[in-house]
Amino acid sequence: MKTEHAPTIRRTDYQPLAWTVEAVDLYFTLDATATVVRNRMRCRRQGTGPLVLMAEGLERLSLTIDGAPAETVRETDTGLEIDLPDDADEAVVEVVTRCDPSANTELSGLYHSGGGLYTQCEAEGFRRITAYPDRPDVMARFTVTLEADKAAFPVLLSNGNLVDSGDLADGRHFAKWDDPFLKPSYLFALVAADLVVLERRETTRSGREVLLQVWVEDGNLDRAGHAMDSLVHSMRWDEATFGLELDLDRYMIVAVSDFNMGAMENKGLNLFNAKFVLAKPETATDVDYEHIESVVAHEYFHNWTGNRVTCRDWFQLTLKEGLTVFRDQQFSADMLAAAGGESARAVKRIEDVRVLRTAQFPEDAGPMAHPIRPDEYQAIDNFYTATVYEKGAEVIRMLHTLLGAEGFRNGMDLYFSYHDGQAVTCDDFVEAMSEANGVDLDQFMRWYSQRGTPRLRAEGRFDAAARQYTLTLTQVRPDGDAPLHIPVALGLIGPKGADLPLTLAGEAVGTVTTRLVELKDTTTTLVFEGIDAEPVPSLLRGFSAPVILELEEDDRRLAFRMAHDSDPFNRWDAAQRYMLRVILAMSADAAKGELPQVPEPFMSAFGALLHNEKLDPAYRAVALTLPAEAYLLEQMSPADPVALRRALIVLMRHLGERLADSWLGLDTRLAVAGDYRYHPADAGRRALRSLGLRYLCAAGVSQGVERALARATGESHMTDRFGALAALVNSPASAEAAIALADFERRFAKDALVMDKWFAIQAGAWRWIDSAQPALARIEALMGHPAFSLSNPNKIYALFGAYFRANPAEFHRADGAGYRFWADRIRDLNGRNPQVASRMARVLENWRRLTPALQSAAQAQIKALLADKALSADVREVLEKALG
Ligand code: ARG
Ligand code: ZN
């Protein structure tokens, strides 16, 4: 592990390497504690300077150049430098190293999990496997031979096509793999494990037969089907939407229990966190099914956007991530719409924006704020962020909005025709879009260097005499003056609730009711004609740009838009804004020690949505869900988590009590008959029923609690069971909650993925706030549970992550015990797994927004952690930025 202060790497310092690798042949003698890697590279000169190889934590056994022992080798901070004769343009370099997978607790490089060996190389894990110019702009042809004990490691997988395999002496065997495509080292992967496989043969659009495989541990085959279906759907979608086909004969997905992130797009051999592969109705919720579908799609889509065309350097990460998130969002939206209609598509957009606002907006407003194409970093692993991924996807979406689906497709075609097989930059992508469409995107490029969430101020003025409505839109950039190119979709709603036709001054009378306006100046004024009565503006429809809209709207207007806005996204957003306003006022009361009051008009507006049977259950479920607590905290100044929680408890109780009959009625009416199937219509009904149980249980309504207990402990599928359990744990009915938790534990004690849910639901539970046992005491006790493990990232995210992020009122305790616990966990995790530690360290980065007493308690812990010399570069970067 690197512990010393890491240097800052800058985007503008990019230099090509003097030596690149054209072909590499790897021979692995695999063993859990001592794996030997023989690496033979055919290197080619492309500039002046030594051959640079990165290496980390490797024991070097030999190094030869063109068959002779290397002489001029220098050790550097990051690996080796080798001087080669000035007149040499080519060299065959062979290096043999040894590493210990079982000691690799960082889960980067080659590591041991559940008896098998697995790799994770993005971003810089390959240098922990062998000495190599471990950068994405070095693209080589890989051949890989794996040799291992056959009994311990019966399955041997690597990238590309299997070209040879067989038995060796002493119970060993081997497999040789050849990847016909050039690739950077971060896309290398191997698996040596005892696994079983689900297989399917499909024919691509051009008629090639391909073998699809999902590899899982024995006993999990009945949970692999949904991942396989998702893979086939992804293939079909990319063929139909972008004309992109699978380019290999074989495509493999492997589920791993210990995995730092979600999944990894290694060429032809995707490695997945098991939670994004395994699903059956008894163990996975609708949300899990949805996530699996989108992560499988995401990794599959990377095969073109990421692998065939990759990044020149890690500053370009959003080139592949923003684009691929956009592609997976579009895919999921199309899948949902095909099964559940346009309303299902709107729900997907709402969910995506909810993630953006909850995770990315706070990041962009805090000390880790960075452009989607960052300018500098210390630990690249810290930059796999909501900004690079989610905001990056919003930037791509704006291009799609500006150019239209066809123009975007043309731009993609041109991008591939220019750059297939290359490592390129974000500029290359936007230039292809620009050229294919004959549009100037220079101003649009500013989105790539823009930091912080831009604001859009809107002001409307109605002139009855002139029958005109004037809308003034002003953009405010947090980081500069140069205006951005912002697409704004907008409409005007007439007094009766119908959209008005939009005619701008000087135009012929129009019929269109939603228009796309392109803002390029700091201030844009739009004059709409033929307007007879003051309209209500509906701006940024579909969330057409990742900005914060500032528009004065009173409660009446918000209620009006909640009832009438024809844009489903904005209708939802109106409800969110109204909820936000009510909750902030209630929290202010709570902070003063007063009993928060729920305004009557809000109750009517909420009730009207609940009772609107014309709206799909799925839509009502998202529309009636309160904004995430993390988002609310971000809007509060100072952020007072305990006051916020009091307000939420009162509001939830009120909504449950007052609307109890409606929730109960709907719970009965919307029950889904028959066996579980993953389908948006069914999922929507289940979501709305579970939401109803949450409100009912929060209010302690006895019929609601009874139904929740029955559903949590009865014979149902995981979606209903977990929905009911989640309702019970946030209920004053703590006896019922305890029964349900114990029942759940008894049923699933041996199922690690399901137990993650059990840990998380307790760590995030509200009510312990009023009971004898605070959440922290429960969490400390749960750390001793036999199903818990400090070496499994999913467990860390479930128990600690849920406490830090999903339970702010309990974490930000006035006595500072939450922060002390946090600091202890970071210290401990730092030594095991810096990437996981650093993610957990980030939960306090916005500490300056807290109340003064909490600020000083948090600051003290951050300072104490920073005094530790053994802190990893990952954690240090986060904490130093936090302290500012
Ligand atoms: N490329 C992977 C994906 O988005 C994620 C890799 C994350 N790596 C990391 N070091 N955090 O699918
Ligand atoms: Zn990705």
UniProtKB/TrEMBL annotation:
Domain Peptidase M1 alanyl aminopeptidase Ig-like fold: 452-550
Source organism, top-level taxon: Bacteria
Pfam families xref list: DUF3458 (PF11940), DUF3458_C (PF17432), Peptidase_M1 (PF01433), Peptidase_M1_N (PF17900)
Domain Peptidase M1 membrane alanine aminopeptidase: 227-447
Cofactor(s) recorded in Swiss-Prot or TrEMBL: Zn(2+)
An example Gene Ontology biological process: proteolysis
Family as reported in the entry's similarity comment: Belongs to the peptidase M1 family.
PANTHER family, alphabetized: PUROMYCIN-SENSITIVE AMINOPEPTIDASE
Protein name, UniProt field: Aminopeptidase N
Organism of origin: Denitromonas iodatirespirans
